[in-house]
Amino acid sequence: MKDLETFIEKARSNYETMDFIVDYNNNKLIKEVKGTYFYNQWLVINQLEHLTSEITKDFPEINIREKLYEAFKQEWPYEADDVSKPWVEPSMMYGTEVWAKHLKTLKDIPHKLVAQLYATHSEIHKNQKSSVLVDKLKTLFEKYYKDHKEEMLEEVKMSWDFKRGLIQDLVAHQEHMEEVLPRIALFKQGAKEIMEDKSGINNMSDGNRDETENDLVRAELMKNAVTMREMDFDDLPEKYKDYVKEDMKAEEQKKKELDKKFEEAPKRWRH
Predict the structure, then answer these.
(1) What is each CA distance from 56 to 50, 117, 239, 241, in whole angstroms?
(2) What is the pLDDT of residues 108-130, one digit of tens each?
(3) When you count CB atoms within 10 A of the terminal residue's CB, does the N or C end of the chain come out lower?
(4) pLDDT of residue 227
(5) DSSP code for 58
(6) How far apart are CA 206 and CA 182, in angstroms?
(7) Whole-angstrom Cα distance, residue 49 to residue 220?
(8) pTM for this prediction
C-alpha cells in the first residue's frame, strides 16, 4: 500500500494548507460558514454510511454521522423556530451534490464504497486519535485492496478531489455570506411582521427604514412566501408582481446553468 500512503500523505498536506482549513483550525470561520461546512460533511457521510451499513455492521462504532449532525446543530446560529429560517438555511454546496451523486453510482460496488469510507473516515478518526477504529478501517480496506488495487486507489484520489472541490465551493459561499449577513436582521424584522399579520403584508413598516428598503424587503418576503407555497402569485399586490416574477425566473435560470455544469465538475476538480 505504499502508493496509497504516499498519495494520502501528499493530499493531506495540500488539504491542510488550504486557507479555509487553516481558518477552520484556528477558529476564524463565522458560525454560519462553519455550520455549513459541518452540514455538507454530514450530507456526504450520512449517505456513505447508509450505503456501507451492511459492510460495517460488525463495527457500527465506525459511523460518525450523528456526531457530525450534532456538530452542525451546535454551530448553526439559527433555531428551528426562527422566523428567518426560510431565508437563512444551511446550503448544500454544488460539490456536495456531485459527491453524493457519485456515491450513488457505487451502490453495488463494495470495494469502491470501502475506498470512499477509508478516505473519509480514517482521516476523521485519526484526527480524533481513535487508533482502534483507524486500524479496523485499515483491515477492512486491505481485505478488498489486494484484489482491486487500481480501482480503490483511484476512488481514494477521487474522494480527496471531492473534498477539495467542496472547500472551493465553501470559500465562494463564505464570500456570499459576508455580503448577505448584514441584510438578515432586516429580513428577520420583516419576517416577524409578515408572520404576525399576513393580511397586512402591504402595510409593513417599522418607521425606521426608507420606503425603498421596505419595498425590497416586502418583495423578497413575498417571493419566498410564493416559493414555499404560503401565498399564491395571483394574490400578490400588483406593484410587487413584476419583481417576484423576474426574480423567480432568474433563480430558475441559475438552476438550469448549475445543472449544465454538473457534468463538467469532476474535470474541474481533477486539475
Answers:
(1) 10, 10, 58, 53
(2) 999 999 999 999 998 888 877 77
(3) C
(4) 63
(5) T
(6) 18
(7) 38
(8) 0.69
